[in-house]
Amino acid sequence: MPHPIRPGRTAVLAAASLFAIPALAGCGGGSDDADKGERTATATPSAGGATGGAVGGTGEGKSALPAALSGQRLSWSSCPAPSAAQGTAKAPGKGWECATMKAPLDYAKPKGETVGVALIRKKATDADRRIGSLVYNFGGPGASGVATLPQAAEDYTKLNASYDLVSFDPRGVGNTTTVKCLDDKTLDTDPGSGDALKDIKRHTRACVKNSAKVLPHVGTATTARDMDLMRQVLGDKKLNYFGISYGTELGGVYAHLFPKNVGRTVFDAVVDPTRDPVRSGLAQAKAFQKALESAMAYCAEEYAENCPTGKTAAEGNRRINAMLAELDKKPAPTESDRKLTKDLALTAIGATLYEGEEGWDILAPSLAEVMGDDGTGTSLLMIADLYNGRDDKGRYSNMHAANGAITCADTRSRHSRADVDAERPAFEKASPVFGPSMVEGLLGCSQWPVRGTADKPEVSAPGAAPIVVVGNTGDPATPVEGARRMARQLGKGVGVNLTVDGEGHGTYGDNRCATKAIDTFLINGKAPADGTVCK
C-alpha cells in the first residue's frame, strides 16, 4: 500500500504513538493488592529506591557522581545501521556521529556498575550561530532516539543551523540496557490465549527471565538523571530539550529534579501530569473516539458512497465493530503468509488517527479492503507492522517491551480483574470501538515486580526557565487539556501554553504558526505569549 506520509513524520509518529494505542497493555491505578498470590515473576530492586520512582520525582538517590563519569570524554564515530532492537533502518550516513556514554546502573551507587547509554548527534551546520546541543526524546516510552532522529532530521533543518541535534536510547530502549521479553517468533505467530491476564503473566515472566537485572533501573527519573549527566558530558551549562509525547513527561520530571539546569525547552503533544492511569485512559478513549468520528465524517464527505464506514458515526461504529468481531472469529488473509487479526486491525486503525487527514486518507481504503468482497487485510497489516516495529524479516524492535517496563516501573498501583470489570462500562461508553480493548490494557502492570512510588509524575519546577508547552485540539493520544495542565503544574512563569486548533498527534512541522513559534523560541529565546492559539 502506498504510504503518502513523509518519512520523517512517519518515524516520529511511530515513535511517539507508542504511548497510547489501545491494543497495548498499559498500567493502571486501582487496587494495590491486585491478584495477591498470583504473581509469578520477581525482580529484586536494589537499595536506594531502585524502582523507577519517576512519578514521585525522587529517583534513585542523589549521590555525587565520580569524575570518571561526570568528566568523561565521548568517543564519537560514524554510525552503523540501527540494531534490530532499535528498529531496522539504513545507516544514517554522512554528518551523523554515534557514541556511548557511561552512567551508573544505580544512581544510589554511583561508584558501582556502569551501563552504556547510546547517543547520536549531527553537529550544527553554522558554527558562528551555534547555541549548543538540542536533545530530543521522541516518546513512547520505548522509542529509540538513535534510530528516529536521522529519519526525522529533515523537519529540524532550521534548528540544526544553531544546534547540534542530539538524541539517545533511554534506559531499557534500543541499545541502552535493552529490555528483552518475548522473542520474535512468539510475537509474530502466537495470537494469544484470549485471556488478557494469562497473556500478561506470560509476558511478565519472559521480561523477568531475560531482563531482571535492568528492570529496577529503567524508570523515568533514572533516565532524567542520565539526561543531566548527558548535559555535562556534552559541555552544556543548560539542557536544551525537545520532548514529544512521553518525552514531555520525561522533560517535566527532569525540570522538577533539575530546575536550575533547564535551558530552552519545548514540549509537544503533552502528557497530562494530573491524571492517574485510569483517568488518563478514559481521556484517551474519548479522544481516540473523537478522532475516529472526525475521520469517519471526513470519509463520508470525501468518499461519498464509497466510504466504508457509511454516513454517520453510529453507522461507522457498528461497521467497524462488526469487522473486528468477524476478525476475532476468522482473521483475514493478506498477501503474506500472515493474517490480520482483530488486535492488529485495531492497532492499525488507531495508528492512522495520529496523522490527521493524511492518516484518514489511508484509513478509508484500508478499511474498504477488509470490508469488501475480497476481505483482505494487507494494508492494515502493513500499518500495524510499522507501528509495532516489525521489519520485513520478522524482527521486532524492543519498543513494546521497553514501553511496558518503563510504564510499570513508574506506576505504583496495580489493577485486578475486578478493577477492570468495574471500569469497563465507563471505557465502553467513552469509546465503543477502542474502549473494550483499552480497559483490558489496565491489567498490563498487574504482575510487574518493580513498582513506582506514585501514579502521577511530579513536574513542578519553581525557578526553571520558561518551557513552551504545545497541545493540539484534535490529538487522540495526548488530549489538549493535558498541555494546559502541564503548563500550570510546571508553575507560574515556567509553563507557557500554546494551543493549536488542528488534528493529529504533535504539531511541529505540520502547523506553520506553531512551528514558527517553536523555532523563534529555541533560536532567539523569545517565548510566545502564554495562551497563544494557532489556527
UniProtKB/TrEMBL annotation:
InterPro entries: AB_hydrolase_fold, Pept_S33_TAP-like_C, Serine_prot/Carboxylest_S33. Transmembrane segments: none annotated. Residues 49-60 have a biased composition (Gly residues). Pfam families: Abhydrolase_4. Residues 30-64 are annotated as: Disordered. The keyword Hydrolase applies. The keyword Hydrolase applies. Residues 431-534 form the Peptidase S33 tripeptidyl aminopeptidase-like C-terminal domain. Keywords: Hydrolase, Signal. SUPFAM superfamilies: alpha/beta-Hydrolases. Residues 1-25 form the signal peptide. GO terms for molecular function: hydrolase activity. Belongs to the peptidase S33 family. This is Alpha/beta hydrolase. It comes from Streptomyces spectabilis.
